[in-house]
Amino acid sequence: MSTEKKYKTFWAFYPYYLTEHQDVTSRTLHFIGTGIVIGLFITFLITLNWRYFVAIPLAGYGFAWFGHFFFEKNKPATFQYPLYSLGSDFVMFWHIITFQISDKMAAAKKEILG
User: Fold this and answer.
1) Residue 78 lies in a domain
2) Residues 62-110 pLDDT 10s
3) Is residue 8 part of a domain?
4) Taking the C-alpha atoms of 101, 89, 111 and 96 in order, what is their torsion angle to the nearest 10 degrees?
5) Residues 92, 18: contact at Cβ < 8 Å?
6) Whole-model pTM?
7) Chain-centroid distance, C-alpha 34
8) Per-residue H/E/C for 50-69
């Protein structure tokens, strides 16, 4: 198994990331997890209670990985591209709340899957 990374930039990685999230339930779980992460971070900033900060990876990864293992049935991109994957969670969250996700998914499928 090669450990060489194929994607050298975030924007080259993002279409691949989207193709790894084709199942709507998985995307919904990512969306929920990312929303909770944002809420936990804001709560941490307001209260300075470190328990909220510590809960961030549990909430984010918990929802996302559940989606991958039980709905996508693939390995999370976090394992090979941790920073690109983290950033992609937030970009996908933005694309969902701005109703761009369908167009972005279609473009990603065309680019990556042909």
Assistant:
1) yes
2) 999 999 999 999 999 999 999 999 999 999 999 999 999 999 999 999 9
3) no
4) 0
5) yes
6) 0.90
7) 8
8) HHHHHHHHHHHHHHHHHHHH
Q: Is residue 20 part of a domain?
A: no
- The answer to whether 44 touches 57, Cβ cutoff 8 Å, is no
Number of domains in the chain: 1
DSSP code at position 80: T
Burial letters 18-28, b for 16+ CB under 10 A, else e: bbbbebeebbe
Domain extent at residue 53 = 25-113
Tracing tokens 């996508």 back to the chain, one arrives at 72
* Structural domain includes residue 10: no
Q: CB-based contacts of 3: which residues, under 8 Å, 6+ apart?
A: 80
Structure tokens at 5: 């990374």
Token output for 20: 């790894």
